[in-house]
Amino acid sequence: MAPPDPADGTARRPRRHDPDRKARILDAALDVLVEQGTVGITHRHVAARADVPLGSVTYHFASLAELQAQAFARFVEQRGSEFAALFDGVRTRAELVDVLVDLVHGSPSRHRSAVLGFELHLAALRDPGLRALAAGWTRSSQEVLARFTGQDDAARLDALLEGMIMHALLTTEPRSREATRTAIARTVDPREQGGSRATR
Amino acid sequence: MAPPDPADGTARRPRRHDPDRKARILDAALDVLVEQGTVGITHRHVAARADVPLGSVTYHFASLAELQAQAFARFVEQRGSEFAALFDGVRTRAELVDVLVDLVHGSPSRHRSAVLGFELHLAALRDPGLRALAAGWTRSSQEVLARFTGQDDAARLDALLEGMIMHALLTTEPRSREATRTAIARTVDPREQGGSRATR
Amino acid sequence: MAPPDPADGTARRPRRHDPDRKARILDAALDVLVEQGTVGITHRHVAARADVPLGSVTYHFASLAELQAQAFARFVEQRGSEFAALFDGVRTRAELVDVLVDLVHGSPSRHRSAVLGFELHLAALRDPGLRALAAGWTRSSQEVLARFTGQDDAARLDALLEGMIMHALLTTEPRSREATRTAIARTVDPREQGGSRATR
Amino acid sequence: MAPPDPADGTARRPRRHDPDRKARILDAALDVLVEQGTVGITHRHVAARADVPLGSVTYHFASLAELQAQAFARFVEQRGSEFAALFDGVRTRAELVDVLVDLVHGSPSRHRSAVLGFELHLAALRDPGLRALAAGWTRSSQEVLARFTGQDDAARLDALLEGMIMHALLTTEPRSREATRTAIARTVDPREQGGSRATR
DNA sequence: TATGAATGAGGGTTCATTCAT
DNA sequence: GATGAATGAACCCTCATTCAT
């Protein structure tokens, strides 16, 4: 005889043997991070988000800190590939600028990456393990950019993008794409003087 | 017979009638924010840091959210003046660059501002009130910069600084001041091509 | 409008301002210790036993270990006075033996002291703070006995009593009072050879 | 792709077909009992101590209570033989006293027995099954002693030893062997009046 | 005005036990 | 036979907030 369903409408969860449950928990943790930030990372929130019993989270992760660390690691891995893929078809400086402008004035899907990135950066301020992770991520991002701009300009460009993305996340009256384009274009190629689309 | 002490470490303190206690509490809250981030903002932590009884915090602030908001407001106000003052003696582009390089490769006192700034930015992502505060801060910062660079370049410079400060906070092997100087110099004056100290 | 009573029949507890609640919690903890042993010392058990909300226990005691330590300290203090009082009217060796036999073949009220004493001894094995407490208790007990027997015999007598009390607690077929009396009498006065009531 | 490890430290161990694993688990449980007391008896602790997978403990024992009971039973059996063997070469009262003094002022190996004995006694207070076990142990111990002292004195001697061992376990400034010897000698032979080594 | 006692929700974590493999 | 994934209860403790004094 099966146990009765609880009264509160939540269906019984008979799910035993669920492979890659661990990965699903990590994805749920990233969802929570986007919506609530690091304060939202609790066993109970993550479990509810992953539609998994509480004990399942504590079973797979020895501590919340470890869960958070692995979630961030998963993000960096996934986002690293995505980021590199953005530049796959880029041949000219103009195309590079196009991609970067899209990066800043991003779609909702970019919003997620941006928020997670900043959460990681802030968490890394006080966690050496996360600091190493963030450093690796920054390095690989700059390597991607450096293929187009050279090493030094890549660092500069990366910092500019970081700041612009943060501002874009926060601003209520979004700066026009044109202003963003100009700023990026000048950084990608300092000889650019005009604010409009580079024609040469 | 003396009344029993509570179990936590809060000792008995006979300080009655303490003007500007409210301000001291806010400063303590900022200290906590620097050291532990927004998760550390609890009545007990702040009270202990301010060396003030627990009830004093709840008495002066209707809720924790309000305490945090006022603490951030105090920070923006203080930091705004400080920031403007940094540029008081600046006359040439070279001097501007000097000040900005110092801003990025900051002393420990700058560390505090940088951390609080990022804490504010991240908290503002999910709190409309803080978002307005952060927006005002960004605007006034850019106005200061714009006195030297014009409006558009100020926004670009501000974003660059933001990104470089974050990277400087996180990196383990700090990038040389020279690289920072070059990046800033090129942004301040796009005609700069060399990486070394600008001579005029 | 008062909040409604909970559905499970437990009456609402409007009790604010309850002085010597801390002492009541400690007494409840001792009750729990008697009934369930150290494993039963949980915030919830003690709170329920003291008819006090859970938060009240955590408020008054910084940790469970501290609660347990203070409870044992309270027991030692109370029991110390009781123990000394047992010998107030003792004038002769025979009266001393009478009191000690009663101590071993104790009433239910003695059961409590015996169990708490052994719980303390065992807990003290692994807790230096409790070890000091237990040592002090043993010392003061032996001082009381020494007033009748001298220092060395007091130690011997104390050990014998300890062992007999433990056996009395455990045995299913209780040894007769006569056997206990004989054993004690021989220890109190080694010249005693017979097993029956000392007449001299 | 390897299956994920659980979050706790239990590593993968390829030991299949391990006879007398059950006995090894019981010995591990006794080790845990000595070090942490009955609260430490958990499936995980015992499994880790025995270097055995978690499931192995639940497989061999229907419940934790049963595991504990069997561990105590194993202790009583082993310790019973050991205890009897202590008296194998005893011929005179003086030799008997020597053995008993060693029993109280024991080496580390005796420490283990003493702690386990008291753990058993206290656990038996609240568990009828263990009470029977403890009663049997006490009986057989007294039978060994009775071969030298007679039935009544054996019970008295056993109680004295029990108390002295407990005191010896707890005391920080260990009572001298001489005092212990005197106490035992007087109990073994009430005609003994002097405190020093009995010469006949 | 100012304080600290009081409360209950919710936090991280450990655990005995069940069960599919 | 043997194992480890899975589950939910219960653990200790921290906390925001309320309120009597």
Automatic annotation (TrEMBL), chains A, B, C, D:
Please list where the region (Disordered) is annotated: 176-200
User: Where in the chain is the DNA-binding region found?
Assistant: 42-61
* Gene3D superfamilies on file: Tetracycline Repressor, domain 2
| The keyword NAD is annotated on this UniProt entry | no
What molecular function terms (GO) are annotated for this protein? DNA-binding transcription factor activity; transcription cis-regulatory region binding
Q: Which InterPro entries match?
A: Homeodomain-like_sf, HTH-type_TetR-like_transc_reg, HTH_TetR, Tet_transcr_reg_TetR-rel_C_sf, TetR_C_31
The UniProt keywords, alphabetically, are: DNA-binding
Q: What residue intervals traverse the membrane? A: none
Q: What is this protein called?
A: TetR family transcriptional regulator
Species the sequence originates in? Umezawaea tangerina
